[in-house]
């Protein structure tokens, strides 16, 4: 994998799913300057507890292939393997897909970010273990706090 940061300004992201994993992905995307469609028959209360700006749309329905037509980036985050596989199958070659249920069908993996002293660290298990990535991120944050005032430029 080739690590990059994506400028999603003026891009379109579609998230298929309305559960915990979709929420975790959405939280990181909502302030990135992109339009976001979240498609799901049901949504976690976290999604519906807030008023969101117009660049974020909640589409309460079952997935259909035209739901991803204009997407630059697609996140598949449902607990329905048939739907997940259908979304992957419907995606075009120019669309980047993160299939949260099957890393072998993903074009990219998200990274955990830790920011300290205006430096951002990105951690990834290459889609293998969210728990392991979170564990090491917590260790890194603890270590970085011990460096308070350590760097003089």
Automatic annotation (TrEMBL):
Catalysed reactions listed for this entry: precorrin-2 + NAD(+) = sirohydrochlorin + NADH + 2 H(+)
Top-rank taxon: Bacteria
Pathway(s) it belongs to: Porphyrin-containing compound metabolism; siroheme biosynthesis; sirohydrochlorin from precorrin-2: step 1/1
Keyword Cell membrane attached: no
Keyword Oxidoreductase carried by entry: yes
Annotated EC: 1.3.1.76
InterPro entries: Met8-like (IPR028161), NAD(P)-bd_dom_sf (IPR036291), Sirohaem_synthase_N (IPR006367)
Keywords, comma-separated and alphabetical: NAD, Oxidoreductase, Porphyrin biosynthesis
NCBIfam families listed in its UniProt record: cysG_Nterm
Name of this chain's protein: precorrin-2 dehydrogenase
Organism: Staphylococcus felis
């Amino acid at each position: 994998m080739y690590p990059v940061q994506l400028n999603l300004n003026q891009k379109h992201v579609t998230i298929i799913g309305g559960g915990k994993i979709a929420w975790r992905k959405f939280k990181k995307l909502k302030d990135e300057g992109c339009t976001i469609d979240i498609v799901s028959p049901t949504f976690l209360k976290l999604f519906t507890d807030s008023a969101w700006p117009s660049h974020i749309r909640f589409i309460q329905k079952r997935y259909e292939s035209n739901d991803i037509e204009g997407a630059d980036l697609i996140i598949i985050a449902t607990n329905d393997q048939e739907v997940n596989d259908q979304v992957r199958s419907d995606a075009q070659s120019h669309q980047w897909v993160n299939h949260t249920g099957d890393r072998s069908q993903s074009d990219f993996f998200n990274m955990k970010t830790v920011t300290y002293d205006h430096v951002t660290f990105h951690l990834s298990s290459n889609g293998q273990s969210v728990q392991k990535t979170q564990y090491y991120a917590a260790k890194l944050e603890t270590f970085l706090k011990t460096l308070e005032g350590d760097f003089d430029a």
